[in-house]
Amino acid sequence: MNKGFNIGNFKIDNNSPVFIIAELSANHNGSFENALATIKAAKRVGADAIKLQTYTADTITIDAKTDDFRLKQGTIWDGKYLYDLYQEAYTPWEWHEKLFKAAEEEGLICFSSPFDNTAVDLLESLNAPAYKIASFEITDIPLIEYVASKGKPVIISTGIAELEDIELAINACKGQGNTDIALLKCTSSYPAPIEEANMLMIKDLAERFDVISGLSDHTMGISVPVVATSLGAKIIEKHFILDRSIGGPDASFSLNEEEFANMVKVVREAEKAIGEVNYQLTEKQSKGREFSRSLYITEDVKGGDIITEKNVRSIRPGYGMHPKHYKEVLGRKFANNYPKGTALKWELIK
Q1: How many other β-carbons are positioned within 10 Å of the β-carbon of residue 185?
Q2: Which residues form the domain of 317?
Q3: Which end of the chain has fewer surrounding CB within 10 Å, N or C?
Q4: Are 198 and 314 in the same domain?
Q5: How many independent structural domains does the chain possess?
C-alpha cells in the first residue's frame, strides 16, 4: 500500500485529512492585488494550499493564427486563439516570488503547475514543495521526467488521459526514482457536467496504480468533492476566486469565498462521517441501548402463575432480559407476586 508523502508540513496518506487546494489559475484577472487578496482569502476559507500556474503564452504554445490554434472544442473559450487566451490568463513570473512569500506568511502551502522546463527551474529556485501536472500535459513525458527528477511529490491530473497515458506518466516518474505520485480524477470540461464526474475512479486509481488519489474538480457546486471524499480522495483541488464579477477566463467555474468555505466545511464533515470500521459502542451509543427492547411483566402476576405471551412481552425500554430468551421463559412460573411494569430477570422465575 502506498505510504504517502509530505507536501511541506502536510502529510498525505490513506489516514490523513483531505489536502484541499485552492487553484488560483487566472482568477487574478491580471491584477497582482487580486492575486494577493485571493491568497489571503484562501487561508480564511480553510484551504491547505494555494496553487499557481507557471507559463507564458510563449512557453505553452506559439503565436499562430491558423485553424489548428483556434479553440473549437465546445469550451467557454471557443473562437479564441491559444496564444491570446494564455496571454490573457497567465500569472506573470515576476509575481511568483512575492506570491510564494505571501502564502508562507498566511501559513498556506504554495506550489504550481509548470508547463515547460524553464518554469520548473523558476519553481525550484522558489523551493516549491511539489509539482502539479495539468490534465493536458499528461502526455508530455519529457516534462514529467524533468519534474520528477527534482525529487518532489508529483500530482497528476488525468482529465484527458487514457489508461496508457496514465501508465506512461507514472513510469516516467518512477524512471526518475520518484514514487511520490498522486493521481487526480478530473473531467476536462469547463464547467464539467456532474454526470461525467465518475467518482468511482477515485478508488480505482488508488488501487490500480498504488498511489494517492484525489480530485481536480471543474463541476459547479460542491457535491462532487464531498462524494470524492467519501470514496477515499486525499487531495481535492478546486478553482477559487474572490468574486466571479472580477471576470477572467476561469471565473465562471470557480467557487467564490462563501462557496469554497462551505465546501471545506462539508468535506471536513464528510471526513468525520466516514469514520472507521468499529463495532464497539461509544458511551453515548451504549446509553441509547436503554431504549432498546427487553422482556417486561405486562400485567400484575402472582407467585406460581405461568408465564404467557399476555403477561410477558418484549417492549421498550431495555432494562429487562434480552428478548432472545422470550421463548425460553414462556411456560415457566413466576417465583413471587410482581406488579405490571417489572423488568423480567432470571431471579423472578422458578
Answers
A1: 25
A2: 283-348
A3: N
A4: no
A5: 2
pLDDT-based confidence at residue 40 (cuts at 50, 70, 90)? very high
Q: pLDDT, tens digit, for every residue of 230-245?
A: 999 999 999 999 999 8
Residue reference for cell 523551493: 127
Write the Ramachandran bin of 275: left for phi over 0, alpha for psi from -120 to 50, otherwise beta. Answer: left
* Measured distance CA(237)–CA(218) in Å, rounded: 9
Let me know whether 328 and 260 are in one domain: no
Written as nine digits, the cell of 172 is 516516467
Percent helix, strand and coil across the chain, each rounded to 5? 40, 20, 40
Instruction: Look up the CATH number of the domain holding residue 300.
Output: 3.90.1210.10
Question: Across the chain, what does the average pLDDT equal?
Answer: 94
What is this structure's pTM? 0.87
State the alpha helices, DSSP H only, in the chain.
Answer: 32-44, 57-60, 82-89, 96-106, 117-125, 141-148, 163-175, 201-209, 223-230, 257-274, 283-288, 326-329
Tell me how far apart the alpha carbons of residues 117 and 126 are, in angstroms, rounded to a whole number: 14
Give the CA distances from residue 239 to residues 53, 158, 215, in Å, rounded to whole numbers and listed in that order: 12, 16, 12
Question: How far are the Cα atoms of 248, 256, 343 from residue 348, in angstroms, in the given order?
Answer: 79, 67, 9
For residue 17, what is the domain's CATH number?
A: 3.20.20.70
